[in-house]
Design brief:
The protein is of the alpha/beta class. The protein is 41% helix and 19% strand. The N and C termini lie far apart (51 Å).
Length: 327
């Protein structure tokens, strides 16, 4: 890469990823189960919002299981943001949760009134939120399946907006940050679990995409400190990690990979503070949900590569995960 190209690359990165204290408007799209790093990711997002770094516009579920959306709302409520819109995934989205039933238990403990609540369609929320935002301003974070985004891309003009879903995305979305894929190739859960949606979305998406691949969060372990926080704070984040570290696997765990938290961190803050950013290139999706990386085609796609010892990133994330709101 020559000097001019490098300077241009840095300029593009600054435009895509912003500065530390930019008020980044966020739509957060999560499966919130079956794994539980989603709890930490939503905690990180609320901590960053409390620090003035972003604004949470909506939180939508990409898993149709009836306990997923109420879990999201229960965590939002703990952080004092029960008014944040919560949406549920389309009918053809994955519909399951963890074997230890942590979602149901969390709802029963913290917000039992949410059990069985009916939530609006995530695509309706996407369209309503995007239509009201400034052009090329919104960052979408996905830490789950691409089911909602496939449905959004397929949506047509309606009473909310005269634009198709794809045109609305092109006009309003600045970038998409996805916990998805494996680099330079692999088969990753969020991609293959709804492979039909992934096949559509990754081939048709019209804005830049930054990927935090499987290999990034897998090496960054967090949650132990969160689980050991005082139970008197009555936190679903503390409880969620304490319960899951003990019961999610047969052997128990001291910490959990931070797949979803790394995506949130790098969606709000400049990712080059924490990782190398590789690209532009192209995320190549196959019909069976496998993927590879094409470095010779500029599709506006980028992916993270480790820069620092893993514990340095874990410390940053866990500090954010331990944020306790003022009650």
């Amino acid at each position: 890469m020559n000097t001019f190209s490098y300077i241009l690359f840095l300029f593009v990165l600054s435009g895509l990823y912003g500065t530390v204290f930019a008020q980044t408007p966020i739509i957060f799209d999560t499966d919130m189960g079956p794994d539980y790093d989603d709890i930490g990711a939503l905690a990180v997002l609320h901590a960053l919002e409390a620090n003035g770094e972003c604004e949470i516009l909506a939180t939508v579920a990409s898993d149709r299981h009836p306990s997923i959306a109420p879990t999201i709302e229960a965590i939002n409520t703990y952080f004092g943001r029960d008014e944040i819109p919560v949406g549920t995934a389309p009918d053809n989205a994955p519909d399951f949760t963890a074997g230890n039933d942590w979602n149901k238990k969390l709802i029963e403990r913290f917000q039992p009134g949410l059990a069985g609540k009916i939530y609006p369609d995530a695509v309706e929320i996407y369209r309503k939120i995007l239509a009201k935002q400034k052009n090329r301003s919104v960052t979408i974070i996905t830490v789950g399946f691409t089911s909602n985004l496939a449905a959004l891309l397929a949506s047509g003009p309606d009473d909310i907006s005269p634009l198709s879903g794809k045109d609305l995305i092109s006009k309003k979305v600045k970038k998409w940050v996805a916990m998805a894929g494996a680099f330079p190739e692999g088969k990753e859960f969020n991609v293959f679990k709804d492979d039909k949606a992934s096949w559509k979305v990754f081939r048709e998406w019209p804005t830049p995409i930054l990927f935090s691949g499987f290999e990034i969060g897998f090496k960054v372990r967090t949650g132990g400190k969160v689980a050991r926080m005082q139970e008197s704070i009555n936190s679903p984040v503390q409880w969620g990690y304490d319960y899951n570290l003990k019961t999610y696997t047969k052997e128990g765990e001291d910490n959990r990979p931070s797949w979803d938290q790394t995506a949130v961190l790098c969606a709000v803050r400049n990712p080059e503070r924490y990782f190398y950013v590789n690209g532009p290139g192209k995320f190549v999706i196959n019909e069976d949900g496998t993927n590879s990386w094409d470095p010779d085609t500029d599709a506006g796609h980028y992916f993270l590569v480790h820069k620092y010892p893993y514990q340095r990133i874990a410390d940053t994330l866990e500090e954010l995960m331990m944020y306790v709101p003022n009650k």
